[in-house]
Amino acid sequence: MLPVLLFALALADEPIRLIVQGDDMGAAHAVNLGTLQAYRDGIMRTTNIIVPAPWLPEAVQLLASEPGLEVGIHLALTSEWTLIKWRPLTQAPSLTDAQGYFHPMVRPNPRFPAGQSLLEAKPKLAEVERELRAQIELGKRLVPRVSYMTTHMGFAGPFPEMQALLKKLSAEYGLPIPGEGVKRLGSLYTQTDSAEARIAKVAARLETLEPGTWLMLDHAAQDTPEMRAVHHPGYENVAQDRAAVVALWTSDKIKEIVRRRKIQLVGNR
After folding, report:
1. 140-160 burial: b if 16+ Cβ within 10 Å, else e
2. Under 8 Å CB-to-CB from 5, ≥6 apart: which residues?
3. In contact, 242 and 230? CB cutoff 8 Å
4. Quick one: which of 143, 113, 128 has its CA closest to 51?
5. Helical ranges in the chain per DSSP H
6. In 65-150, where does DSSP find H-type helix?
């Protein structure tokens, strides 16, 4: 019984840590503003930048004004939206469509015509490495405090060779890939849930959250005319969905539970 009791006491002393991560800074003006709002007024403590994305210069400027916000590099080899796109920083014909943009999907998607996925394009690893290095080096130059890296849309999933490359680049540039020892809160709500429904569902989970380090990852944005033009087949309510994330992360109810339960808001570091 003694080992069990000691384990229980150790577990009781372990704090509850929560990483609240908002992806995709640089993708749109509304994303930049929503992400900063979720940090300044809410519980989000880490974000990341898509280096080839069109609103990166503004993201860099905003991040300079918030030195306490942790920042990572969100490596991207896809550009999913219909009306807003980004291209590689390097010459990478195996990574692009006929217009020179990244393909929208990682894997074939029945909502998209054939040939619009990274998997179908059969990307050349040398081009992938050159592009990822360019994104990392520019990101580090523009935001020197970047401290980790992740992948947009999990692009390395179908490619073991890319997964190995990411590990190599992570070690070389000193940018860890988060995940080890972290538990995910999981899908507590849907993209069509209202802000009120999300707040209720997340509040219920936070009330029962066990000690350890947990990750809540989503995408913040403001509901603006610009953001309402951001969509792709099968995901049309982007602005409403991502504005509801901001409402969730800035909710007084959520913040009260975090304070009362002494949940430590931490970053990936």
Report:
1. bebbeebbbbbbbbebbeebe
2. none
3. no
4. 143
5. 2-13, 29-40, 56-64, 118-121, 125-142, 160-173, 195-207, 225-228, 238-249, 252-260
6. 118-121, 125-142
- Topology (CATH level 3) of domain 13-266: TIM Barrel (3.20.20)
Question: What SS3 state is found at 269?
Answer: coil
Across the strands, what pairs with 16?
Answer: 212
Distance CA 48, CA 7 (A): 36
Measured distance CA(222)–CA(93) in Å, rounded: 34
What predicted TM-score, i.e. pTM, was given to this entire model?
A: 0.94
- H-run or E-run covering 18: strand 16-25
Phi, psi (5° rounding) for residue 192? Answer: -100, -5
Three-state DSSP class for 200?
helix
Mean pLDDT, consecutive 10-residue segments, the chain of 269 residues? 44 86 98 98 98 98 98 98 98 97 98 97 98 98 98 98 98 96 93 97 98 98 98 97 98 98 96
DSSP category for residue 95: G
Q: Which of 257, 254, 253, 231 is nearest to 242 (CA)?
A: 231
Return the closest-CA partner of residue 261 out of 215, 218, 211, 214. Answer: 211
Whole-angstrom Cα distance, residue 20 to residue 245?
11
Geometric angle at alpha carbon 231, from 229 and 233, rounded to 5°: 140
- Number of H helices and E strands in the chain, helices first, is 10, 7
Residue 129: both structure tokens together: 């490495």
